[in-house]
């Protein structure tokens, strides 16, 4: 998961540090290790562990603590302002889906048209379709209630359907425009958007198969049985019997509304390509994640709440109750953003960029490795993509349009490598699925690594053919 380029541009000035690049590396390793130990061994709440880890990072890196407070609070605030608002709106829409019976209707439809063995493949397909225009965070908060309900009603392990859904969203997020990372790389490398989109889909399909339904069975054995969180997945009989239920068409329209609005914005950005044009300004507004999800939530009050026979008071009560369970998630995700901003501001990204300039390897592999290192250090796929694309941009000047597109994909693949404790997405998945840190590392983190490795393993030989 990553912040938008706009929010990144608003980050505070880098924290000064007096140590060497090797000291920065030690600081990163110590802070990440401390966070893991505080959570796993001392059972400290992740919010506190991430906050303390940020302090340790700044201390070892030699950054002044007065600057640390501003850096951490800026990262926390920008993450909550973007991801936190989306989580809140997604929770409202998810609660309306669950209480009105809308989630049951989606689950019943998926179950009716997919056998038990085909459920992982069905969830991967649904996630990929919804993930094409959706930001990762929006896709997660929209899909999680459905994933949990399908797992419960289909009587299948949560990992078996959860991993394919997460993989579908993540693969599209890193490899396929119009997601912000690939779009930024396309612009930086002067690659052709159409070729990048076509090759991205070509790479995404086999990558999703391996990292989704196939890896899900491995993750299921590693993680073990998981109890489906009751707060976001009502039992099958809780909403099954009611006098009024929304229609499948109404439910689908409500869920797809933000998809359509954001896809419209992406198309307008490509077709109109004039920020001052009234049409593009309208699409930019209604297609922003916040407005799109807000519109879907308001529509859901009518198509889901009213259709289920809820009066105004019941709808208000349903929406209000959705916010309590996700308060902890918002604080943890925000602290993850604060830790990530501290990493960026002490100069970790710049140090990695300087180290990578000394390598002499294939441009595609170089772009992937640089993105991997920055992803590991900062936790941000967008930061990794922007930085790596900037470093290798001169190499793309002499490339064909096809190879420039493959370089975009290589960087995108590297930006997904091994999500861990400095990535807000790590905590989002952990809390939604009710997993421990160890279980999240064995499932989500390994899945992200599989996506990254499989994608570059497909890109490299493809570059020799086309």
Walk me through the topology.
Layout: H1 5-9, H2 21-40, H3 46-61, H4 65-100, H5 102-113, H6 119-131, H7 136-154, H8 158-175, H9 180-189, H10 193-223, H11 248-271, H12 278-286, H13 289-306, H14 312-321, H15 327-345, H16 348-356, H17 363-378, H18 381-396, H19 401-414, H20 424-433, H21 437-465
Helix pairs in contact: 2-3, 3-15, 4-7, 4-13, 4-14, 4-15, 5-7, 6-7, 6-8, 7-8, 7-20, 8-10, 8-21, 9-18, 9-19, 10-19, 10-21, 11-12, 11-13, 15-20, 16-17, 17-18, 17-19, 18-19, 19-21
Summary of the model, kept short:
The chain is an all-alpha fold.
How would you characterize this protein structure?
- The chain is mainly alpha-helical.
- It has helices spanning 5-9, 21-40, 46-61, 65-100, 102-113, 119-131, 136-154, 158-175, 180-189, 193-223, 248-271, 278-286, 289-306, 312-321, 327-345, 348-356, 363-378, 381-396, 401-414, 424-433, 437-465.
- The longest helix has 36 residues, at 65-100.
- Residues 1-12 and 233-241 have low confidence and may be disordered.
